[in-house]
Amino acid sequence: PASPWGAQCRRQPHKPANVWVPDKKAAIDERRRLVSAEADLRRKKAKAYRAEWKAKFSFSGFYEDPEDFEDFVESDADSYIALVKADVDGMGRLLAQLDWDKLADHLGVDAPAAALSFSGAVDRCVRESLAESVNSITETAQKVKQPFPILPIVVAGDDLWVLARKSKAYAFALEMGTQFACKARDDGTLKAA
User: What ranges make up the beta strands (E) of the chain?
Assistant: First the structure.
């Protein structure tokens, strides 16, 4: 904005800051954020995404909501956070070698339905393992004055990307591997494949 009366958006400097919510009950930073309408919409969608994931974990109610990357930082002296990227080892090799007709016969369905059943089983094992792993490392019996330490970014098939507080990342990765191995071993479709 070239106008001396216009402020720039803090997130998208090429756009004008046009968000102002004159609600006396809202916190001052909620009422006047100096962001564009588009940036505000992105912020609201991100907040809804975080709330959706946080609701899936048992102990999330004991934690505050993470709002930004800084919420995953341990302290001012150590500004590192963790990005845990995981996938199922050898999945590509397994898919290339899998006899879909044999799996279909074993499941009593046609080959496309067997492929759908297989991908659903992988996705289910990953999602269940994620929930149990997060619950395991965030378990608490009392309110914690910290933001929730984990946020899944990508959960798609056998791929998983998670932002985490550095102190929780290693324990999460180990627990996730253990949980997935157990669930995959016990799943009838994956066992047949």
Answer: 82-86, 150-156, 159-164
Half-sphere exposure of 37 (CA within 13 A, CB side): 1
Distance between CA atoms of residues 59 and 108, nearest Å: 40
Q: How many residues does the chain have?
A: 193
Question: What pLDDT sits at residue 27?
Answer: 60
Q: What is the sign of the dihedral through the CA atoms of 173, 175, 177 and 180?
A: negative
Predicted structure pTM score: 0.79
Which strands sit side by side in the sheet containing 150-156, from one edge to the other? 82-86, 159-164, 150-156
Work out the number of other CB atoms within 10 angstroms of the CB of residue 8. Answer: 15
Backbone dihedral angles phi then psi of residue 86, each to the nearest 5 degrees: -140, 150
For residue 193, the model assigns a pLDDT of 83
pLDDT above 80 (res 31): no
- pLDDT category at 1 given cuts 50, 70, 90 is very low
The answer to whether 189 and 124 have CB atoms below 8 angstroms apart is: no
CB 153 within 8 A of CB 75: no
Q: Give the tokens for residue 170.
A: 């290693």
Terminal CA-to-CA distance of the chain, rounded, Å? 59
